[in-house]
Amino acid sequence: MSLPPTVPVTSPTPSLPPVARRPGSPVAGFGIDLLIAIGALLGLSLACSLAWGVWRGIEVGMAAARNGNGAPAAADMAALMGQPGALAQMLIALIGTGGAALLLYFWRRRATPGERMQSRQAALRASTWGWTVLVAAGVFAGSSLIGMLAKQMGIEPVPTNLPLMEQALAQYPAFLVAFAVFLAPAYEELLFRRVFFGRLWAADRPWLGMLLSSAAFALVHEIPGTSPNTLPAMLQLWLIYGGMGAAFAWLYRRTGTLWAAIGAHAINNAIALAALVFFGAQ
């Protein structure tokens, strides 16, 4: 991807409009936001998984009735039901993480009229989208460089979502594009940048907010104990995701609009998806 030689800057770094300070530590507020998000994500994901299990159980029972085999034994039911497919997993992720993001936004970090006006004004500046393209290109280049250096040291991690992406690409390519390029960037930026990072930014602690929100962003993408990757491979993935989160937080603060962070995230996911289509897992 070619980069513009210069990026026009037409205004100083935007800042959030003054907000009323709530009593208590902003770090404690961040912790409360995080706990609510984890609870909402797990609760919604569990509810969706149970709904899928009920639906799948009905399908298995009806198929057995049509074949005249009677109700399957309880011991055989789990094997007959199988695991949620790519479409079901994407829908569970959409409802779980997207629902948590919307809950936290409307309950804890809803934008004021002044913030919404500032965001619209920032989205109309050409410099906003110059920075967006530049940051997206920088994230891609940085991730590629980290990957190449790690490969020289014999570290080649496999992201835990790669099998899902490959299955979805083969079975539901249109929905995968909509999910990875449009939906996931929107709800992830709403949660990690607007809610998590934004709380500490509004409390004049943007660098701490960048650190904490980026760590949460990395951990939710590669959860310890759920991946067969070695510790060095996990550290590489955390470094990539954490750097990505920090870059998007910086862009949000630099431009003053969450749309820039969503745009950069969407560009990054589109590049990764195109690489998966044309070059495979490598």
Set down the secondary structure blueprint.
Blueprint: H1 26-66, H2 74-81, H3 86-108, H4 113-123, H5 126-152, H6 162-171, H7 173-202, H8 206-221, H9 231-255, H10 258-279
Structure overview:
This protein has 282 residues and is an all-alpha fold. It has one domain (26-279). 76% of the residues lie in helices and 0% in strands. It has 10 helices and no strands. The protein has helices at 26-66, 74-81, 86-108, 113-123, 126-152, 162-171, 173-202, 206-221, 231-255, 258-279. Helix 1 packs antiparallel against helix 3 (86-108). The chain starts with 25 loop residues before the first helix and ends with a helix. GO terms for molecular function: endopeptidase activity.
Task: Tell me briefly what this model is.
Pfam families: Rce1-like. The chain has helices at about 25-65, 75-80, 85-110, 115-125, 125-150, 160-170, 175-200, 205-220, 230-255, 260-280.
| Percent of residues in beta strands | under 5%
Class per helix and strand makeup: mainly alpha
Number of strands: 0
Q: How can the largest sheet be summarized?
A: none
For the termini, the CA-CA separation is 19 Å
Low-confidence stretches: 1-15, 17-21
